[in-house]
TrEMBL record:
It comes from Actinobacteria bacterium BACL15 MAG-120619-bin91. InterPro entries: CN_hydtase_beta_dom_C, Elect_transpt_acc-like_dom_sf. Residues 6-91 form the Nitrile hydratase beta subunit domain. This is Nitrile hydratase beta subunit domain-containing protein.
Length: 93
């Protein structure tokens, strides 16, 4: 099992905002464009996993976030959106 290098800055239940750009240059482009600038709630934390078979440096901690779809697509959207976002894209809201 891979080693967990960093637990991350946020905990389950924290309200965070997805930045428009990462705090540091990143090689990980996985942040969904529709989430940029929006506020979500941390549902799960994964920490930063060291996996030398996949990448020579650990990725920053990863979180599963829950967004109200109405914040992203307007008041007629009544569902929720779940996305995974790395630490360098997040600020405490």
């Amino acid at each position: 099992m891979p080693e967990i290098a960093d637990r991350g800055r946020f905990a389950i239940g924290d309200v965070v905002r997805v930045r428009m750009s990462p705090t540091t240059p990143t090689i990980n482009p996985r942040t969904p464009p529709y989430a940029l600038g929006h506020v979500g709630t941390v549902m799960k934390t994964y920490g930063s996993v060291v996996n030398p078979q996949d990448h020579h440096l650990p990725y920053s901690p990863l979180y599963t976030l829950r967004f109200e779809a109405s914040q992203i697509w307007g008041p007629k959207a009544s569902h929720v959106v779940v996305a995974e976002v790395h630490d360098e894209w997040l600020d405490l809201a």
